[in-house]
Amino acid sequence: MASASTPDPLPATELPAPYGSGPAGTGTSAASTDPQSTGPTGSSPVKRVRTHHLQAAKDNGSKFAMLTAYDQYAAQIFDEAGIEVLLIGDSAANNVLGYQTSLPITMDEMVIFSRAVSTAAHRAVVVADLPFGSYEASPAQAIESSVRLMKEGRVHAVKMEGGAYYADTVRALTAAGIPVMAHIGFTPQSEHALGGYRVQGRGAAQQALVDDAVALAEAGAFCVLMEMVPAEAAAAVDAAVRVPTIGIGAGKATTGQVLVWQDMAGLRTGHIAKFVKQYADLHSVLANAAAAFGDDVRNGTFPGPEHSF
C-alpha cells in the first residue's frame, strides 16, 4: 500500500522538465514532484522521469537521451544537464575497471556503481545492466539478481541482453514488479558467440531482429535498445513495437539515443566507433590540468600562501 504522503499519479503526457526550467528563480520543474527526488543539496525538488514518460515520448513523436554513468559526479552532471535516462552499463568493465571486455564484471561491482549513480541522480530514470552470468540460468536467477540491483543498487529498472529466447525471463521479471529494458542487435556479452564486434540484422536477418523485439515487448519490456544494427532494420523494429526504442549505432528512427559517456566526452582515446560523436575533449583537458599541477609542485609554486593555513 502506498504511503499517505505519496502524491496522486500524474498524466504521462510529456517528459518532466530539466533543472532550471520551472518558474523563474526556482531552478526546478513547475510540475509536481516525486517525494524521493529531492534534488541536489539546498535545491528544491524535481520531478522524476518514469518509464511512462519514455512511452509518452514514443507516443508523441518526441525524443529522449541516455548516457552511461558509473559514479556520483558524472551522474549528477548528466542529471542536471537534463539527460532523461542514466545507464549503469556493464561497460564499466571496459571504461572504469580496465578489463578488455564487459564479461568479467561482477554483480557486486555492479551494485556499487549502481548505488553511486542512483544516489546522485534526482531526475533521470536509472537503469542497470544485468551482468554476464547473472540471469542466463533461469528466470529465478534473473529475479534474484534484479532484486539486488533494485534493493542494494537502488536502480529503477534493469537492462538485459538477448532475444526472444528470454521472453519468459522478461515476463517473470515484469510480473515481479521489475521494469525491464531489452537489448538486442549486437549484444556485447555474446561477442565471442557473435564472432566479435559485428553489425547485426543485415539483410534477411532483419526479420529475426524484428521478431526478437516484438517477443520481448509483448513479454513486458518497457523499452527495446538496439546496438549496431542498420538504420533500416532499426526503423523496422521501431515501427513493429509500441514501446520506445533506443539506438546506439542504429540510425535516427529510435525514440532515444545512448552513448558511453567516456566516448561522448572524449575521455577515452584510440579507435572510436563510427556511431560515436564526441562533444568534448576531456582527455586533453585532464592531461593538461595534471601536467600543470605536476609542474607547479615540482617548481614550488603550489601550494602558495593562499593554499596554506
How is this structure best described in words?
With 309 residues, the protein is an alpha/beta fold. 35% of the residues lie in helices and 12% in strands. It is built from 11 helices and 8 strands. An 8-stranded parallel beta barrel has the order 1-2-3-4-5-6-7-8, surrounded by 7 helices. Helix 5 crosses helix 6 and helix 8 runs parallel beside helix 9 (231-240). The chain is globular. The protein starts with 50 loop residues before the first helix and ends in an 11-residue tail after the last helix. The model is unreliable at 1-10 and 22-33 (pLDDT under 50). This is 3-methyl-2-oxobutanoate hydroxymethyltransferase. Residues 34-44 have a biased composition (Polar residues). Its cofactor is Mg(2+). Residues 1-48 are annotated as: Disordered. Homodecamer; pentamer of dimers.
